[in-house]
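Researcher: Re-running this chain for the archive, since the previous output was lost when a drive failed. Same request as before.
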Amino acid sequence: MNNTVTILDRSTPPKPGPYPKVAFPAFECASISNGLDVWTVSNHDQPIVSLSLYIRGGSACDPRGREGLAASVVDLLTKGTHRRSATKIADEIDFVGGSLSASAGWDALTINVSVLTKYLDVAVDLISDVIQFSTFPEEEIERMRLQRLASLRQAKSDAGFLADVVFSKLVFPGHPYGQQSGGTERSISEITREDIVRFAKEYITPSDAFVVASGDISPDSFRKLLDTNLSSWSGSARKTPVLGNAKPLHSRKVGLINREGAVQSALRVGHIGIPRNHPDFIPLSVMNVLLGGYFNSRINLNLREVHGYTYGARSAFDTRMAAGPFAVSTEVRTEVTTRAVEEILSEITRLTVEEVAADELQMVKNYMIGNFPLQIETPQQVAGRVATLVLFGIERDYWDTYREKLSAITSVDLYRVAQQYLHPSTLAIVASGDVQALEAGMGEFGEMNVFNDEGTVIERPISV
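Model: Regenerated structure tokens:
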């Protein structure tokens, strides 16, 4: 009889095993008779289909003075057609247990439908109706206008919203990304039905649109269904405006928005980043997660755990067709606002002057690699990933090799991208809070202006 007792060493955690293999679902593309590209991903595990129609050209195409026009148009697409009232559209999709929504991003308008497979014909019929035969009733336009104006007025009480508005103005002066995608009180008040009809006629055409469907579908049968419903959809061919990148700042800019008596400040610190299809997107994503992209990030641990300034802090590269913003975001107590900015600048600078330790980098990569399978579990998630490839012109095998590329990132890679894409001396620094308490300390960071809740500079000199 063997009486040997094995003593386990519990002083160190076990080494992780190899990453489980997770293949991104196969997808295919074909066109229907009017030239509309249709991308399909078949998954028969559940009888559900997620269907999205993308039309290139979103809020970045809003004419100046008509900010919020693209968002208004997509809101109104589902509010009445020649065949259906807004109520009937809502009732029909509710009756089959599905969902129908429309939204405007910076780079595309999107109509999303999710239904059980047996009701796919209902979903396609609804999409066909709203994109071809929307009537944009005056009463729905006025209802939309009142709702948007109420939301904008309410948003002005949100310090984070005000900080975002001013941050965009500082980082993207004169560029479409500097506009408010949801519009302003003035622009929403001045949008007319003629503006809406003109925008819809120009942009909602199959010449620069595509469909992505994921779930329990047969690609051939699905395309035939689309062709039956959408073959008559036409419109003048157009060329989507090509946005250039905004010019980077040459010095630090500080913006304050006054919220008299506020006990905390909403902070935004950052500058221009990169477009989504940039070849350095993956190493830069790893660097950002390490900096402020998850709970154990440097900025969150610094501001929350070490100093107790905030409940949470984060950073992100918002990548778009053109270079979008990089921003650190947090809310801190008024009396520690200046010190919080100093710590944020310190963490950004630190990445540009020293390489990341191997164990810290590995922890970030483990997090990102392990999290990826959770991001492609549902038909909607898969469809969104495919749409990213199509919209931004990214290679088709991108998601197949994504985890391998993550795994290959080194400390040298992070040091290179940090030096190349982080610019601590030319940042925009915005604080929405009590100006009287903030202006002396914040003025030390760079040229400073005070803005009102419309995002307009208040014409008054500030001595610091």
